[in-house]
Specification:
There is one protein chain. This protein has about 220 residues and is of the alpha/beta class. It has two domains: about 130 residues, Beta Polymerase, domain 2, CATH 3.30.460; about 100 residues, no CATH class. It contains nine helices and eight strands. The protein has a five-stranded mixed β-sheet with strand order 2-3-6-5-4. A three-stranded mixed β-sheet has the order 1-7-8, with no helix packed on it. The longest helix is centred in the last third of the chain and has 20 residues. The chain is globular and about 60 Å long. Pfam families: AbiEii. This is Nucleotidyl transferase AbiEii/AbiGii toxin family protein. InterPro entries: AbiEii.
Length: about 220
């Protein structure tokens, strides 16, 4: 059993949703909590994150999820709209003015976790090692400042070689170092940061990735 935790940096709406999810044993025993909000609210407390991501290693039907979302929408006085994207059901809960209140994702993620994570209110939370492995692959699949920020703080705890090892072990794939270095340099495209809970300058973030890309380049030129 993973370490039980009690303190998070959830917003009030996130806490309401998570409380309801934890009480729904049909869902909370099948899905685990992961993604940027798990990383920030449970582990690093470094930035604000709005989405709640729940993944399952086995396939699932929609009935229980739809019922849960309908109950949440009623509880926080919102309406839901759903998007199906590959193996993920994305639910956006909006208010009467169509402003997004919270986004909740339920995904089928058929990759075994490398390590047991923590537990929050009886819900499994993805481990830092698994989130790290996911992040370094995600940063090559999309260009989102939140991923660069998350990876920046993860790389204060682990080395990039740790993350590459875990990613290869989890996904049975080897990341091309030239591709990775090129991906890191995309941080130059951004002129803003997400809402931070700890100090971080964009210039420092960009300098960090430029230096990391150079070090990776040096490693395969030796």
């Amino acid at each position: 059993m993973g370490k039980v935790i009690t303190e998070t940096t959830f917003s009030p709406v996130q806490q309401t949703v998570f409380d309801s999810f934890a009480k729904d044993k049909n869902l909370s025993q099948k899905f685990y909590f992961t993604g940027g909000t798990a990383l920030s609210a449970v582990y690093l407390h470094h930035r604000e994150s709005e989405d709640l991501d729940f993944f399952s290693e086995s396939d699932f039907d929609n009935d229980g999820i739809i019922k849960f979302i309908d109950n949440i929408a009623s509880l926080i006085n919102t309406r839901s709209r759903v998007t199906l994207k590959e193996r993920v059901r994305i639910f956006e809960l909006v208010d009467d003015d169509k402003n997004l209140v919270i986004k909740i994702d339920f995904g089928y993620y058929p990759h075994s976790r490398l390590k047991k994570g923590k537990r929050l209110q009886g819900v499994d939370v993805d481990s830092l090692i698994d989130i790290s492995a996911n992040k370094i692959t995600t940063i090559l699949q999309r260009t989102d400042i939140k991923d660069f920020v998350d990876l920046y703080f993860l790389l204060k705890k682990y080395t990039v070689w740790d993350l590459l090892h875990w990613s290869q072990k989890k996904f049975n794939m080897e990341i091309d170092l030239v591709w990775l270095a090129s991906g890191f340099l995309k941080v130059e495209k951004f002129d803003y940061l997400p809402k931070m809970l700890v100090p971080l300058k964009l210039s420092d973030l960009q300098a960090f990735y430029k230096d990391l890309a150079r070090k990776i380049g040096d490693s395969f030129l030796r």
